[in-house]
Write a structure and sequence with these properties.
Blueprint: H1 5-12, H2 15-18, E1 21-27, H3 31-44, E2 48-54, H4 56-64, E3 71-73, H5 77-85, E4 95-99, E5 102-107, H6 118-122, E6 127-130, H7 136-147, H8 151-154, E7 158-161, H9 164-172, E8 178-182, H10 183-188, E9 192-197, E10 207-212, H11 220-227, H12 231-239, E11 243-244
Parallel strand pairs: 1-2, 1-3, 6-7, 6-8
Antiparallel strand pairs: 3-10, 4-10, 4-11, 5-8, 5-9
Helix pairs in contact: 3-12, 4-5
């Protein structure tokens, strides 16, 4: 028996038929928190949230080259500025979501020490950092070390990784005795501990802006972005070591 026109229309308008896939390009440091938030979203919506994590610079360049992202969440305002300048986000949707701290970490539960003792603590070992000329965590780290007069002493020992989570892994696996990552990364990795927190005035303020891309093909992208400023998501972000700015 053929379905009636009305029945067919009802099926077409059913939640399953209207479900969207929301593609999010997000800074690697957001993985644990954003995975939890996306899982919560999917429990209450028919949409699927797919998150691609990498360094903000890599993601920004992919968006500029036409990668099909609906949302971009960067770990720095500079890379969001870049995709806004190239016309690849909707500036009306842009908002600052989060803040973070910059920390020196070691394996296990290392003893706390002043950041200025980094060269002595490092000895002949490697210092894990995200790419210092392009990835936000690496850029913040280099700026902080330079501000404190330490960069020239340690730059020859820096082991650069594609993103901050890759730098974190170098420390957690013992390939580098020390690393510079975000405070939220130290929360996410039980295999490392914080030795010191870099002074806030030693580097630019760490800000995570988010925006809907020009290429977004689902209206739910904006709704998901808005949810990141609401109570359930805020609680998850704070539990993961972020500060919430919205």
């Amino acid at each position: 028996m053929r379905l009636s026109f009305l029945a067919a229309a009802l099926i077409a308008l059913s939640p399953a038929a209207q479900a969207d896939e929301i593609t999010v390009f997000a800074a690697a440091s957001l993985k644990d928190a954003l995975d939890a938030i996306a899982a919560d979203w999917q429990k209450n919506h028919d949409d699927t949230v797919v998150v691609s994590y990498a360094g903000s610079s890599q993601l920004a360049k992919q968006i500029q080259q036409g990668a099909p992202a609906d949302l971009f969440i960067s770990a720095s305002t500079d890379w969001m500025d870049a995709v806004q300048a190239s016309g690849d986000i909707d500036p009306a949707t842009r908002k600052d979501l989060l803040g973070n701290t910059l920390v020196l970490v070691g394996t296990g539960k290392p003893a706390e020490a002043p950041v200025t003792e980094l060269p002595a603590l490092l000895g002949d070992g490697k210092l894990a950092m995200a790419l210092v000329d392009s990835v936000p965590a690496g850029q913040y780290g280099k700026a902080a070390l330079t501000s404190l007069g330490l960069w020239d002493q340690v730059q020859g020992q820096v082991a650069q990784a594609d993103n901050v989570r890759a730098a974190l892994k170098l420390v957690a696996t013992g390939e580098a005795p020390l690393g510079i990552v975000y405070g939220s990364d130290a929360v996410a990795e039980p295999g490392v501990g914080v030795i010191a927190t870099f002074p806030a005035d030693s580097h630019d303020k760490i800000t995570y802006p988010g925006a809907v891309t020009r290429a977004a093909d689902t209206p739910q992208a904006g709704a998901f972005l808005d949810s990141l400023s609401q109570a359930p998501a805020k609680s998850i972000f704070e539990s993961q070591g972020f500060t919430v700015t919205q």
